[in-house]
Every structure is written in C-alpha cells, then in structure tokens.
Design brief:
The structure holds two protein chains of two kinds.
Chain A: E1 2-13, E2 16-27, E3 31-35, H1 42-49, E4 57-64, E5 67-70, H2 76-82, E6 84-86, H3 99-104, H4 115-119, H5 122-142, H6 158-171, E7 176-180, H7 188-203, E8 207-211, H8 215-221, E9 224-229, E10 232-237, H9 239-243, H10 246-253
Helix pairs in contact in A: 5-6
Chain B: H1 2-27, H2 35-53, H3 57-79, H4 84-104, H5 106-109, E1 121-123, E2 126-128, H6 131-154, H7 156-166, H8 168-173, H9 178-204, H10 214-227, H11 232-250, H12 256-277
Antiparallel strand pairs in B: 1-2
Helix pairs in contact in B: 1-6, 1-9, 1-10, 1-11, 2-3, 2-4, 2-9, 3-9, 6-7, 6-9, 7-9, 10-11, 10-12, 11-12
The chains are: A alpha/beta, B mainly alpha.
C-alpha cells in the first residue's frame, strides 16, 4: 500500500530540466532511499513534494486516513500539516533559539500559537505547552541529547545539530518523513545511531524517504532504493539488486574503458 | 524640573516606538525602515479628528492606532513576501510616501504649515495639562504597551516569530503560515506606533511633516539596535539614552548653529562604536547575520 505516489513530475529551471518526468511510489512503513549523483534532482524533488517548489507538470499523491490527496501544488506549511515532515541538507535549526524551543515549535496542534491565544487564553496555552514539553523531552531522549536541552542550537556540533533536526521532525509526529542527507558529514558512530533511529521509526509505523550518498548505509537500512540520474528514475528495487546494476555504476562512476 | 519632565515624556513616547519596532525587527527579523510612517498616521489621525470633528484625544488614541495598524496590513500584504534587503527598501519607500502625503496633501493636512492648536488630553472633564499629569498618562501607556508586547513575545506566538526570524524556510516546514505571522507582527508594531503618534500630537499640540521623516525612522531603528534586538529592557535603555544624549549636548554650550549637526554626528558615532564593540546592542539577544 503506497503512502506517496509521484506521477510524471517535471521541473525546469530556465529551460534546464532538474526533474524530468519522475514517477514512483513509496510503500507505507518502509524505508526508501533516493540516491543518485550530484545534480540528479533529488533535492529538487523533495522541494516539490514539500511545497517549496511548484512542479511544471505532474502530480504527487499523499495517502492518509484512507484518502488520497494531490499535494504537488500545496504550499509548504499545508503539506507539513498533512503529516509530512522534512529535514534539510543544511540542517536549518533556529540557530539563536534553544534546543527546547526548536522542538517545542514542532507541534501538530497550532491553536496555542495564535495571537488570540497569546493575548487571552492562558489555560489552553499552558495545557498545549505541557504536551509540547513532554513530546520534546521524549524525542530528545530518543536521539540521546537530553543534556543539551537548554543549549543554543548554534552552539551544538554538526552531528548534534543533525540529531536535533531529526528530533524536530519526529516531534511533528508525521506519517511520512523526508530526510535530505540525514547522515552527511557526521561521525561513523553517529551515522550508526541515526540508522538505528530510522529503523525504530519504521517499527513505530512511520514511512521514511531519504536522500543519501553512502551506499553502505543505504544497503544496511533501506527496504528499497530509487536511483535518479539527470532528473529521471534510472533504477528501482531492492538494495542488493540495484547496486550492482551496470547502469547505476555508470551513472555514478562513468563508463568502464573498453 | 519642567524641562526634565518634558524630556521624560519624550523618552516615554520613544520607548513605545522602540518597543513596537523591536517586535518587528528584533523578534520577527523584518528590517523595517519606515516605522515613522505609522507614528505619523497615528499623530495625524488623532490631530485631524480633534481639529476637524472635535473628537477628544482618547478617541483619537484607538482610532489612530487602528488606522496605523490598518496601514500596516495594507503595506504588509504585498511587501512581507520580500526578503531581507528588499523589505528594507520597500518599507523605506513607505516612509517616504507617507511623509510626502503629509507634506503635499495641503487641503487635508495643511502640508508644511502643519496642524497647530491640537487640544490636549482631557479625561472625564479633567484637563491633563500639567506636565507631571501628562507624564503619568505617558507612563501608563508605556506600561500598557510593554505588558502587551511582553505577553506577545513570551507566548508560543512569539516563539514562532523568532523562528521566522531565524529560519523562515524551516518554520514553513513545521507547518507555520509564516506570512501570517509576519503580517501580524507588522500590524501590532504599527498599532503601537500609532499610540505613540497620538501621545506626541496631543502633547506638543502642533505637528508638521518634519517630525515624521525617514530620519525619524532611522532614529527609532537606532534606538532598537543600541538597546538590543529582541530585548524589551534594551528598548527602554535605547530610547532613554538616545533621547537624553542630545539634551546633554545642549548643556555643553555648543552654538545652536552646529548643535543639530553634532546631534546627528553623535548618533553616527554611537552606531559605529556599537557595531565595533557590541554588535548585538547593550542587552541584545539576537545578532544580525
């Protein structure tokens, strides 16, 4: 059963195709890896799905609670509210706020963040804030950074910031997580830890689609790999089938000399 | 003593302006260069209501604030989609436009002749004409503005404003309708600037466009930066220091012909020194990136 379905997605920048007729499905409660050389259009595809870019043509359907919805032209905040959380290649924490504030901001209920709530409704706000605090604590413990709760985000190390950005996405309690290079530039131990977290999230019924360059990591945790090249889908399948495919090797490394 | 009371009243009015601009610039990260426009609308609305329709000042107070807030909405809708520098230029343009309207719509605003004879405050038949009484009125409105803005910035709503400031893209990815938040911050800022305009008009009893130039916007912004972005305490200090410093210069016996220039220069020097020594301002919690 799919949770996300892209159909013939196209996006050009000044006539140059970035995503060029991409179609695939992501199955519910699986981990799917989106791989491909730099410039293949992976992040552009993420940006289209999450509402930061509008596609030139094509549709993207999101399945939740038994209904099917075209999200390809929905604005970013509306996509997030449907239960799709994303992280960014360049992390994008709220750098001059604490880790706790970063996580408290990731809340599925939003009434307590209204201006009228700020001015008039105290009890409702404090109830919502207690829930936010519990959830923030829970996911901070989940990623193992409880001690950093009051640190400013900008004072964390790169790996810690990666973990906080994951915790922030988890706090939204989404059905689908889109992670843009969740392990880029982190220590091998942190990479293992992140792999473990993603597998736990899958056990909890979440679906994960992530962009990754480290093939060992991909083979370790992904149920399915989608290989992109030049805006198109090159191959799709189980990790062990895909990585030895000559076309995939060629896309990454070029043709073997005759 | 009278003189000191006068300076305190002016400082109080600037405190409200600085607080309201800090909400926009310091907490929400919107570089607004046209705050005097809202101050101007508050002052002219209240003055014209009093002079043309005989409305008391306490009716002009909410009327001016609401109209200033409404202008914030009208201006904010198209411009708040702009980023950083572009927004600064657009709000700068707003400041110029409102000033030019006040200056050139002579049949309505009397243009450069200004509006003399604005009546003072009277509350339940009691004329607030003594300086100390007016100071109390100003302080009451300062406290009111402080409490509201404090409540706004300490709330989850205010947390979203800071998130928009730090990274608008990430805020969107968390489901925040960031344009709405920016717009609301802009409107609240304009609303309180309108309150300050009312206090100014009914205190000085004469207004003309020269009080609402772009330079005035820059001065308010300087107060925010000096006191510290995203610091309410800092706004008080910034406003008080920059109101008192020129007054101190007055006692240094400078001839009046150069006093004004020295005042401008002192602003410049304070700003340069601040950027070198403490770029986040005296009490600032947020640095320009």
């Amino acid at each position: 059963m799919p949770i996300l379905e892209a159909q013939n997605m196209k996006k050009h920048f000044d006539g140059i195709p970035a995503v060029d007729g991409l179609s695939f499905e992501v199955e519910k409660e699986t981990i799917t890896a989106l791989v491909g050389p730099n410039g293949a259009g992976k992040t552009t595809f993420f940006n289209i799905i999450t509402g930061f870019l509008e596609p030139d043509s094509g549709e993207a359907f999101f399945y939740s609670n038994g209904s099917k919805r075209d999200i390809s032209r929905l604005s970013a905040h509306k996509v997030a509210r449907l239960g799709i959380a994303r992280t960014f290649q360049n992390i994008r924490l709220f750098s001059q706020m604490t880790v706790l504030d970063n996580l408290m901001l990731a809340s599925n209920s939003r009434k307590h963040e209204n201006l009228s709530a700020a001015l008039f409704s105290k009890s409702h706000v404090s109830r919502a804030e207690r829930e936010n605090l519990d959830r923030a604590n829970h996911y901070l413990e989940f990623v193992g950074l409880t001690g950093k709760i009051d640190s400013l985000a900008e004072n964390l190390s790169h790996g810690q910031r990666k973990l906080v950005s994951l915790a922030r996405a988890f706090c939204l309690e989404p059905d689908l997580l889109l992670l843009d290079e969740p392990t880029a530039g982190v220590f091998p131990e942190t990479r293992e830890k992140i792999g473990g977290l993603l597998e736990k999230m899958r056990e909890m019924g979440k679906t994960i689609l992530f962009i990754e360059h480290d093939m060992h990591f991909v083979v370790d945790i992904a149920d399915k790999i989608i290989v992109m090249n030049a805006g198109k889908k090159l191959r799709e399948g189980k990790p062990e089938e895909v990585i030895d495919d000559p076309a995939v090797i060629e896309a990454y490394l070029g043709k073997e000399l005759p | 003593m009278e003189y000191l009371l006068h300076i305190c009243i002016i400082a109080g009015i600037y405190y409200i302006l600085t607080l309201s601009l800090n909400l926009v610039v310091g907490y929400t990260g919107l570089p607004s260069m046209g705050h005097a426009a809202f101050y101007c609308v508050g002052a002219y609305t209240s003055a014209l209501l009093a002079l043309r329709l005989g409305m008391p000042a306490w009716i002009g107070l909410p009327a001016g604030a609401i109209l200033a807030g409404f202008l914030g909405l009208i201006i904010g809708l198209p411009t708040l989609r702009l980023k950083g520098d572009f927004l600064a230029i657009a709000t700068f343009g707003l400041g110029v436009i409102v000033y030019q309207i006040a200056l050139n719509w002579v049949s309505f605003t009397r243009g450069p002749m200004g509006l003399p004879g604005i009546p003072g405050y009277s509350i339940f038949g009691w004329e607030v004409d003594a300086l100390w009484a007016y100071l109390i009125l100003v302080v009451v409105l300062c406290v009111f503005s402080y409490l509201i803005i404090r409540r706004v910035v300490k709330s989850p709503f205010g947390r979203v404003l800071r998130a928009v400031r730090d990274d608008e893209t990430a805020a969107k990815a968390l489901g925040k309708n960031t344009v709405n938040y920016k717009l609301l911050a802009f409107i609240i800022g304009a609303f309180f600037a309108g309150i300050a305009g009312n206090l100014y008009a009914h205190y000085i009893t004469f207004i003309d466009p020269s009080s609402f130039t772009v330079m005035e916007s820059v001065t308010i912004l300087l107060m925010v930066i000096l006191g510290g972005m995203a610091s309410l305490k800092g706004s008080l200090v910034g406003a008080v220091v920059l109101v008192f410093v020129p007054e101190i210069l007055r006692f240094m016996g400078l001839p009046s012909s150069i006093a004004a220039q020295v005042r401008q220069m002192s602003y410049g020097l304070i700003l340069v020194g601040l950027m070198l020594l403490r770029p986040q301002g005296l009490f600032g919690k947020y640095r320009f990136k």
